Amino acid sequence: TKKELPEHLKSYKHVWVLVELERGVVHPVSWELLGEGRKLADKLKVDLAAVVLGAPGGTADAIKDSFGYGADLCYVVENPSLVDYRNEPYTTAMTELVNKYQPEILLMGATNLGRDLAGSVATTLLTGLTADCTELDVDSDGSLAATRPTFGGSLLCTIYTLNYRPQMATMRPRVAAMPVYQPGRTGRVINHEVSLPEDSIITKVLSFLPDSATGKANLPYADVVVAGGLGMQNAENYQLVRNLAEVLGAEWGGSRPLVQKGWIPSDRQIGQTGKTIRPRLYIAAGISGAIQHRVGVEGADLIVAINTDPNAPIFDFAHVGIVADATKILPALTEAFRKRLALAAARPAAE
Amino acid sequence: MHIVVCIKQVPDSAQIRVHPVTNTIMRQGVPTIINPYDLFSLEEALRLRDKFGGEVTVVTMGPPMADASLRKCLTFGADRAVLLTDRFFAGSDTLATSYALSYLIKKVGEEWGAPDIIFCGKQTIDGDTAQVGPGIAKRLNLLQLTYISKIDEFDLAKREITLQRRAEGGIQVLKTKLPCLVTMLEGTNDMRRGSIEDALRGARSEIVTWSAAEAGIPDLALCGLRGSPTIVKKVFAPAPRDEKAFQIDVQDKSANDISEALIAEINQRQPGLEQDIQKLAAGF
Ligand SMILES: Cc1cc2nc3c(=O)[nH]c(=O)nc-3n(C[C@H](O)[C@H](O)[C@H](O)COP(=O)(O)OP(=O)(O)OC[C@H]3O[C@@H](n4cnc5c(N)ncnc54)[C@H](O)[C@@H]3O)c2cc1C
Ligand SMILES: Cc1cc2nc3c(=O)[nH]c(=O)nc-3n(C[C@H](O)[C@H](O)[C@H](O)COP(=O)(O)OP(=O)(O)OC[C@H]3O[C@@H](n4cnc5c(N)ncnc54)[C@H](O)[C@@H]3O)c2cc1C
């Protein structure tokens, strides 16, 4: 396991991040990855590039924001076939760019888009791809050290792609912090033409049903999250979690067993095989704090745990603990917040 | 119609333990199961077969004991099971795994008819990369449809399929051609129990077992550890956080008192949060 980079791969330089632009919106994981990519590029003393793929005329904002979040340059492919994400044209565009401009590191979000695309691109390029990393670093010989949890979070491993380029990795939303936006920061734009005639693309998008229409959860980006676990005892008691969330304007979620019991839908599961969250406040009621749950919530600024068992593992990583019955505390807490917020609302706005 | 379903035998990871001294995974004695995500794909395949006719072949690459998982699939109603097993495959990463599996599927196609659809699980619970499905699709030059929540239409005569895909921020309704590779989202169906006849057949059936040579894998250097660009350099347990939670005093306190104390603690640690909650709760 020594690094013996073949001659033709020595020209691979710079760190790239795919900017996930879909239906006019950039997934924030792309900015989080630019933040991580910036650190790697600075260590390697190379450039950080953003890759923006999209519809003609639809990439300007994404390019501007890429620079604002730290990119030195932007590779841009505009093509009518890139309006919606589809595996075929995206794989073609991405692999063409890589073969022509040769990055040494290529990062993508571990989203449904990123995971779908990264697997195809890595296989086309016959290079290594490390999935769902929680930490990215470069070691002394300049190799990417990609650390990821495995076996449901009970272990971590560090993976290298020593003798192939680019070194590819994906990272889940909210694992890395959002970098500071620097307004007015700019850089070089490199436009690249790719031939993607629509009649050569077999898969067609018939329609798109946006989530807002169906009231989907947005746990990863919520400021406040309230969650329950098996300690809530039954589906009726789980309603107490939702009541508090409603008063706080928060998102609600839970541990995996609640999904299996059908108390909450699967898109509200928090943890290793659910959502990674990074709220300013996380309230966990009746959750034991298993490692698979812990890895999904550790990025929270403030973790409050309510649990009857003083030895519950959740008190090992929560910041504030309450050893008490959650079915008693939650209603009282909901009422207390409701009163405070009503009082504050009744006062005329100070600004 | 011929459908191939790729399944993986995985350790029941709820029971995985880490050796406290060597930090290695203690697999001995850990029960194995069919990767739970694969069952949603197997059930979808069986439903298509029941409706449109044909056969379902389940395949896996793994150690000889993986035949137990294949046999289980036969008891659910799969028609045939093929195990690819060889010491050359040890240490395969996803690139090497998709290489071997793509040749296995080619060979299965030569023996029993080219597959119209290949199903994979969304991901596994051990490696958990979600990379093998896309890898196989690329190597076999198949259209790839991941995170599918529903198959809306299936037209074998026109060789067309319409499906719903979970995308970021919504559902994409996609139409494409056969043959293709599909990975199903979890929770999209309920695995059947299998009939008594299937249970008996499953117990009696022979599992077709091939070595790398028998499956016609051309280049062993692209298999196993040698064929894997990724290198696992170290495996370790996450560092424990040494600070314990600050405990709110609950001794002889009412739920109301405890709540007020908690709110004070939250406001002290996250100044400004309550004002922002005010805005959030007002619906901004
Ligand atoms: C591969 C794999 C992936 C997994 N992925 C996830 C994941 O993504 N997310 C996840 O959450 N889990 C996941 N798990 C499951 C995880 O291992 C735990 O089983 C799960 O998190 C436990 O859920 P829980 O804390 O709700 O239940 P329990 O562990 O049963 O804990 C219930 C807690 O409630 C407390 N309690 C009881 N009554 C009360 C009361 N009245 N008031 C207050 N507290 C009370 C108890 O003291 C206990 O600590 C995964 C497991 C595996 C094997
Ligand atoms: C600790 C650890 C970390 C790892 N990290 C990485 C990594 O970051 N990158 C990497 O390239 N490899 C990695 N690997 C190797 C990887 O786990 C193996 O290549 C494994 O054979 C397949 O990957 P997976 O389990 O992630 O499958 P996934 O890609 O998650 O599986 C998706 C689907 O593909 C099918 N499938 C997968 N494997 C088989 C099989 N053997 N037979 C039949 N069907 C199958 C199943 O339908 C499955 O549901 C890691 C392995 C370990 C032990």
From TrEMBL, chain B:
The keyword Electron transport applies. The keyword Methyltransferase does not apply. It comes from the Bacteria. InterPro entries: ETF_a/b_N, ETF_b, ETF_beta_N, Rossmann-like_a/b/a_fold. One of its GO terms (molecular function) is electron transfer activity. Keywords: Electron transport, Transport. It holds the Pfam family ETF. SMART domains: ETF. Residues 22-219 form the Electron transfer flavoprotein alpha/beta-subunit N-terminal domain. This is Electron transfer flavoprotein alpha/beta-subunit. It comes from Beijerinckia indica subsp. indica (strain ATCC 9039 / DSM 1715 / NCIMB 8712).
